[in-house]
Each structure stands twice: as structure tokens, then as C-alpha cells.
Automatic annotation (TrEMBL):
It is found in: Cell junction, Focal adhesion; Cell membrane. GO terms for cellular component: cell-cell junction; cytoplasm; focal adhesion; plasma membrane. It comes from Eptatretus burgeri (Inshore hagfish). InterPro entries: LIMS1/2-like_LIM1 (IPR047944), PINCH-1-4-like (IPR017351), PINCH-1/2-like (IPR047946), Znf_LIM (IPR001781). It is a peripheral membrane protein. GO terms for molecular function: metal ion binding. Keywords: Cell junction, Cell membrane, LIM domain, Membrane, Metal-binding, Repeat, Zinc. The lineage of its organism: Eukaryota, Metazoa, Chordata, Craniata, Vertebrata. Residues 13-74, 75-134, 244-303, 304-363 form the LIM zinc-binding domain. This is LIM domain-containing protein.
């Protein structure tokens, strides 16, 4: 095309964005045959020019890198970053090819295929290796992961939900564990069946009681069995052994014993009825069969000082049918400190020291003396 023909074509051309013509000296942007004013060649979202001229096109519209990622780019399920370029779609998620790896051996799975299992995925080479274990429900071979173990009847027991790749069923122990969670029950740690009744807790794990026999008499145990020094005993045999029983948890006491309130306690179980902190040898106070620390006993049941109106902590001064803190018991006239050894006179149901009393009018002192001798006031 000659220069004159090109000039003629530009005169007849229009900007793809604003649909207006171009000036004879104006700079023009050509993108895949589309012509734009330089100021019109901008991101369809933020209307800013493209940094370094880099843009992405989606459904006929052009976007800068940032807005394209925010609007359309998928997020990697592993690293959480935006994916630009090749995307691996698997397990209802998107992945960078380099982030899509076997959960066991960490090999990249982007080009080798994978096996999905209970929300996890692994490489075919690993799950089809010679290290297999028969899956009893369908005889399909399932890889024995190092975290799994086998119980006595050949089923897989593990901390994960082991699902057969072929039949999609859980192994029996895992199935029972999930069912027990829904029912609010325990799974026996020996036979892996659900415990319908009360479990026998042995070494912090639940069991069917009939899996055990009494160490002393050999009888089949119930949930009331007691553990002593690592051995299980039926309740009658245990009681005959003279082992002290804790008044709180009703379990045998093998170590230190606290004797208090006519009962025996584990050291850590003899606690304040209010704050539940162990006394650990400190003084306790009893009230209606319950033990309290000094602080909470005073708060709940202690005397209130007549003067400061606070619970009295420590010694109490009882006088004139009232209770006083030691520091608050003083002459109501001159505020000098008093003790029960000091002589004082009652005036208006308050103590008055002898020195202040001597300054009272004679008639008032006669009246007070007469009132003190009145037997109806005693």
C-alpha cells in the first residue's frame, strides 16, 4: 500500500473504542488489526493504560494483568496464588502444574495421572507398587501407608478415612468410627465395634467390658471395674483390697492421700467448692459438707464490719452485738483504737473510750449508767 493510500485509509478509519477518526499527526495503537487512540487503548475494568503494554483479552475485552487475575484467573488450591497459563483441574479445584503433587511421595502429578482417595490424591506408581494390602470388603489392593496398621481380623485401622478405590466403601474400623461419632458413642479399641452400653475405660481408651477378666477372681468385668497399678479388678475384689477411694472421683488413690471432712481424696481433687483450686496443704473452711478456701469462705459466709461494711478477713472483734475489723474497732468520738482489753462505754450502740466518756455531761452519764443497769437491755 502506498503512502497516499495508507493516509486515505486512516482518514476513513475510526477508533475501536470511541468510534471517532484519527488526526493526521496522532499516534495510533494497532492491536491485532484493531486501531485505537493512544488514550483509548486502556483496561476495560480500571480504564488505565497497560503497564509495559502487557494485557490479556477475554470475550473481546482487554484487561491489565491485575484486573484479569482478580476477575478471571483461578486460584491454586495449594499455594493460593493466581494461575496464569496452564491450569490443572482436579478434585473440584485448580492447581499450578508444579503444585499438583502426590500427598505421599511429593511427585509432580501434572503429566503422570493420579488416584483420588478420601479427599487426597497420590501417584499411580505409588498406589500400584508391590506394597499392597488386601481390602477385605472387595479384595481390591490398597496401598499400606506408613500411618496405617492392621488389626487382628485383617481390616485396616488408621487415623485417616481409608476408602477403597474400587467400591468406595470405608474399611470396617473407619466406618464404625464415623458412625459412632454421629451416635455419640465410643468404638472399642480391641474389636473396633461400636460400644452400645457403658464403656470400660482402661489406660484412657474405651473397651467393651467383656473383653477383660478380673485379675483376682477371673470373673468377666463390667463397666464398674477398677484399675489398680495397671491391672483391672471387679468392684468386690477391689473393695476387699482396702484401697482408699477418692471422695470426688470415686476412683482408687494410689499416691498421696488427703484425709479431710471424714473422707479421703486425691491431692488434686480436694478443692475449694467455689473456685475449684486444690488446697495443696493450705487451710480450708467447712460449711454444710463443703470445703472452701479462706477467701471465698469469707466472701460467702464471713462477717461484715460494722464500720467499713466489708467482709472481715482474719480476726473478728465482736462487741455490742456487732462485728468489727481489728483496725476499725475504735472510739466513735475520738477515733482512738480500741481492743477488747480496753474499757469502753456503749453510747448509741457504739463504743466510746473512758477518756471521752469522762467529758460527757453528768446528767448524760447518769442516764447511761441507769440504762446499763436495766436488765431488759441485757
Amino acid at each position: 500500500m502506498t503512502g497516499s493510500n495508507m493516509a486515505t485509509a486512516l482518514v476513513n478509519a475510526a477508533c475501536e473504542r470511541c468510534r471517532t477518526s484519527f488526526g493526521p499527526t496522532e499516534r495510533i495503537v494497532n492491536s491485532s488489526g484493531e486501531l485505537f487512540h493512544e488514550g483509548c487503548f486502556v483496561c476495560a475494568q480500571c480504564f488505565q493504560q497497560f503497564p509495559d503494554g502487557v494485557f490479556y483479552e477475554f470475550e473481546g475485552r482487554k484487561y491489565c494483568v491485575y484486573d484479569f487475575q482478580m476477575l478471571f484467573a483461578p486460584t491454586c488450591g495449594q499455594c493460593g496464588e493466581f494461575i496464569v497459563g496452564r491450569v490443572i483441574k482436579a478434585m473440584n479445584n485448580s492447581w499450578h502444574p508444579e503444585c499438583f503433587r502426590c500427598d505421599v511421595c511429593d511427585e509432580c502429578l501434572a503429566d503422570v495421572g493420579f488416584v483420588k482417595n478420601a479427599g487426597r490424591f497420590g501417584c499411580l506408581q505409588l498406589f500400584l507398587s508391590p506394597k499392597f494390602l488386601p481390602f477385605t470388603s472387595c479384595s481390591f489392593l490398597l496401598h499400606l501407608h506408613p500411618t496405617m496398621r492392621t488389626c487382628s481380623d485383617g481390616y485396616i485401622a488408621c487415623d485417616l478415612l481409608v476408602v477403597c478405590f474400587l467400591c468406595r466403601h470405608l474399611c470396617r474400623p473407619c466406618h464404625n468410627r464415623e458412625k459412632a461419632k454421629g451416635l455419640g458413642k465410643y468404638v472399642c479399641q480391641k474389636c473396633h465395634a461400636i460400644i452400645d452400653g457403658q464403656p470400660l475405660v482402661y489406660r484412657s481408651d474405651p473397651y467393651h467390658p467383656d473383653h477383660f477378666n478380673c485379675t483376682h477372681c477371673g470373673k468377666e468385668l463390667t463397666a464398674d471395674a477398677r484399675e489398680l497399678k495397671g491391672e483391672l479388678y471387679c468392684l468386690p475384689c477391689h473393695d476387699k483390697m482396702g484401697v482408699p477411694i477418692c471422695g470426688a472421683c470415686r476412683r482408687p488413690i494410689e499416691g498421696r492421700v488427703v484425709n479431710a471432712m471424714g473422707k479421703q481424696w486425691h491431692v488434686e481433687h480436694f478443692v475449694c467448692a467455689k473456685c475449684e483450686k486444690p488446697f495443696l496443704g493450705h487451710r480450708h473452711y467447712e460449711r454444710k459438707g463443703l470445703a472452701y478456701c479462706e477467701n471465698h469462705y469469707n466472701q460467702l459466709f464471713g462477717d461484715v464490719c460494722y464500720l467499713c461494711n466489708k467482709v472481715i478477713e482474719g480476726d473478728v472483734v465482736s462487741a455490742l452485738n456487732k462485728a468489727w475489723c481489728v483496725g476499725c474497732f475504735s472510739c466513735s468520738t475520738c477515733n482512738s483504737k480500741l481492743t477488747l482489753k480496753n474499757k469502753f462505754v456503749e453510747f448509741d450502740m457504739k463504743p466510746v473510750c473512758k477518756r471521752c466518756y469522762e467529758h460527757f455531761p453528768i446528767e448524760l452519764k447518769k442516764r447511761l449508767k441507769k440504762l446499763s443497769e436495766d436488765p431488759t437491755r441485757k
